[in-house]
Every structure is written in C-alpha cells, then in structure tokens.
Amino acid sequence: MIRTAKYQDLATIKSLTEACAHAMQEKGILQWNEFYPSLERLKNDILQEELYVLEEEATIEGIIVLTPTIDEEYLPITWLTPSGNNLYVHRLATNPQKWGNGHGRTLMDFAEDFARKHNYDSVRLDTFSQNQRNQRFYEARGYKRLGNIYFPKQSEAPFYCYEKVME
Question: What is this structure's pTM?
C-alpha cells in the first residue's frame, strides 16, 4: 500500500534514508550523506504532503517525494517539455535489506500513474552519475538523460537529469 506520509512516520523515514545512505556508501556510491536527506527536508516533505510511503505489513519499506515544484538547480536544463506542468521525483528510497524486491519499481509506477491521473506533461528526476544501476533502471522505464546538475554538499560528481513524457 502506498499512502501519504504522516508526521509520526518521520523517525522511521529518517532511519530508512540513513540505512540507504550507508548501503550506497558501502557500494561506493557517495550519493547520500550526513547532509542529505536531512531531517528538516523530510519533515518539510511531510508537511507539504508530498512524501509518500510504501507500506508492507504495517512496515515502511520505501518512500518517494512527488512535487510540482522545480528546484533551482534544474533551471539550466533543456527539458523535453515546457516547464510549468511537470511532476518531480525526489528522495526515492527503499529498505536496502530488500533491494531487488521491486519496491523501487512499485514506487515509480505510482509516480507515473500519479502524473497521468493529474495530467502532468512529464515526470522529471535526477540520479547520481556514479549510480549506474539507477541510470539503467530509469532508462529502461523510458526516461531520457538530458543534462548534468551539481549538489556540492553531496558530491563533486554530477547528477544526471532525466525526463519521461507522459502519453
């Protein structure tokens, strides 16, 4: 089941993102760290009602943020569709003990269905340049790589921007 996150989920969500950060670092993917995603950022996602949780047997197994708001870092990118009616995906995370179980796919299916249901022109996101597994995952779903952005607090390496036009 996927539902909107509640404030009382915050501690569990933060623990999940910390576990993901640690698991990625163990694989040499320095995408998330002690600065990102911050507790304050996750709290704001919940207060904005933009954070969704994937629950199985009353346990949060994954999260995803869906927002119509473009981040300043995305402004220089030449997108496939005009900006203004797009859905942005941020902070997709799943329980690293269950990586490979399809939770990421389930959350992205939810995001794309949400975009279609709400008549967004496209879904936009970014992923770390050193996370080849994520790049293959998004490209297999029909996302087009469009350009690079940087988040210096996370890494010196770029993040790749992707977009999928909703049909």
Answer: 0.94
Q: How far apart are CA 52 and CA 136, in angstroms?
A: 23
Nearest Cα neighbor of 151 from 134, 132, 127, 167 is: 127
Strand partners, 94: 62
- Counting other chains too, the contacts that 108-112 makes at CB distance below 8 Å and 24 or more residues apart are 108/64, 108/141, 110/2, 110/52, 110/54, 110/64, 111/64, 111/66, 111/87, 112/141, 112/164, 112/166
Higher-confidence residue of 141 and 32: namely 141
pLDDT for 126-162, tens place per residue? 998 988 989 999 999 999 999 999 876 677 889 999 9
Two structure tokens written together for 21: 């950060």
Cβ burial of 147 (10 Å; 0-12, 13-18, 19+) is: middle
